[in-house]
Amino acid sequence: MGELAEVSGMANASLSRTVDALEDTACAFRLPTVTDRRRITVHVSDRGRDKLARIRQIVVAWEQTLQQRLDQMPQQPFLKPPTSPRGR
User: What stretch of H or E contains 30?
Assistant: First the structure.
């Protein structure tokens, strides 16, 4: 769990709550490692893989829709050029 917290950038407590929630929904499960039974590894279940694949599809569709809408917008700068004081 410590390694997972490190690579995910999450605090240990937040990560534990997240993994608990994933276990509660049968999307992940914890198992002791073979070499050191005190260490726990987190595994994604088939249900978790299915959910992740669906979420990825939704994100890709959303990104495509957003890109299409942006492409249809007139090209305008985000910032207006500065104007000189007193109209100069």
Answer: strand 28-32
The closest of 51, 70, 69, 48 to 59, measured between CA atoms, is 51
Quote the CA–CA distance of 16 and 35 in Å, as a whole number: 22
Please tell me the distance from the alpha carbon of residue 43 to that of residue 26, in angstroms, as a whole number.
11
Which residue's structure tokens are 């937040």? 14
Q: What is the pLDDT of residues 19-77, one digit of tens each?
A: 999 999 999 999 998 898 888 999 999 999 999 999 999 999 999 999 999 888 887 77
